[in-house]
Amino acid sequence: MDGMNILVINCGSSSLKFQLINAQSEQLIAKGICERIGMDGSSMTYSPADGEKQETAAPMKDHTAAIRLVLNALTDDKTGVVKSLDQIGAVGHRIVHGGESFAKSTVITDEVLKAIEECNDLAPLHNPANLIGINACRELMPQTPMVAVFDTAFHQTMPEEAYLYGLPYHYYEDYRVRRYGFHGTSHSYVSHRAAAMLGRAYEDLKIIVCHLGNGASISAVKEGKCVDTSMGLTPLEGLIMGTRSGDIDPAIIEFLCNKENKSVHEILNVLNKESGVLGLSEGFSSDFRDLEKGYRAGEAPSIRAMKAFAYRVAKYIGAYTAAMNGVDVICFTAGIGENNPFIRNMICSYLGYLAITIDREANEKRGQEMEISTFDSRTRVLVIPTNEELAIARETYALVK
Ligand code: AMP
User: Which of 18, 76, 264, 273 fits a 20 to 30 Å CA distance from 195?
Assistant: First the structure.
């Protein structure tokens, strides 16, 4: 195959997702996931683009062992997709938190690793796992250039009034407590695609991107720059999500600690893992496929959860329209945004003031790039499947070619 192949790695604390992408053709060559790394019952799923999906139960004592299995699968005589590791030109790593140090992707050096480590405090669950992934790759492919692509970088253009919380200013100075935002690679990819789909210059548009997946966030992109986003110091703030609460009155935490006799840590666990639409539906489901069925069957828990979810998104769209003094285009992306016509319709039903009319037939489609507003809508509404791995591969290639 011509051109450079880029290995994209998204490393979690016990899982590792990977994709091999050709930088010239932008074709996916193979992908997969290692799960339960360091635990009993670990396994790897490997899918070459032209072949059959394979699932292998294999012990992986750590991330280095997992990456060794991935590299073996990619170069295997029978099922591999490249002849040797020399045909992997670079590795792009998804890094969750770049703090204020990284407003752009960057080639990984020892100094960069140190700076990423300094952000560990801000994302104690994610950044250390990302670093383990980088170190494991460096050990096995010492000559291959690597790039760090940060979830927070796209949002670093936010103005001070958007990123500061109403707290004593020295908390920002002392500890860098501020809004950072996440899903930046997705917000960047989708907002650029929106401009391309409309045939307009990116710098001329006011764009709202609704990234609605199990984790959900919304961003305002004005004249080519992100000016606000709903996630904050951590991904807990903002929209109601699958299991995360999104915005709440901070005083609720102490109130619940007292009532339930729980620690702050335990209540935060509830806010992260037992809240959102899962909590609102009384534990029924965090998955919108289940909730949609429940809604259609007239079940109160599903109806309540979906209504609250849609209302929160609509409220943020209103806020960001005000922040940008208008909006030209609203984009839906990620699992729910791409695949759930029902929720898109519920959200857009609040947006009459933007002179939006939804084309019902177009909106019934799932998982494809399309416009769902009618030709006479003043504000356009687009569905754009996100592709964070491709965006990471592009950023990586741009820095190493
Ligand atoms: P994500 O975190 O982006 O993978 O999104 C997960 C959410 O997307 C879940 O709530 C799913 O119910 C929803 N989702 C994914 N695929 C579909 C689909 N084909 N139809 C409806 N909802 C979907």
Answer: 18
For ligand 1, residues with CB inside 6 Å are: 213-214, 242, 287-289, 334-336, 339-340, 366
Q: What is the pLDDT of residues 49-84, one digit of tens each?
A: 998 999 999 999 999 999 999 999 999 999 899 999
Paired residues of 371 in beta bridges: 382
Helices in 297-369 by DSSP H: which ranges? 300-323, 334-339, 341-348, 360-363
In the chain, the percentage of residues whose pLDDT exceeds 90 is: 95
* Catalytic residue chosen out of the listed positions 2, 50, 121, 151: 151
386 CA: nearest ligand 1 atom: 3
Query: How many A from CA of 275 to the centre of ligand 1?
Result: 18
Q: What share of the chain is helix, strand, coil (3-state, %, to 5)?
A: 40, 20, 40
* pLDDT tens track for 263-291: 999 999 999 999 999 999 999 999 999 99
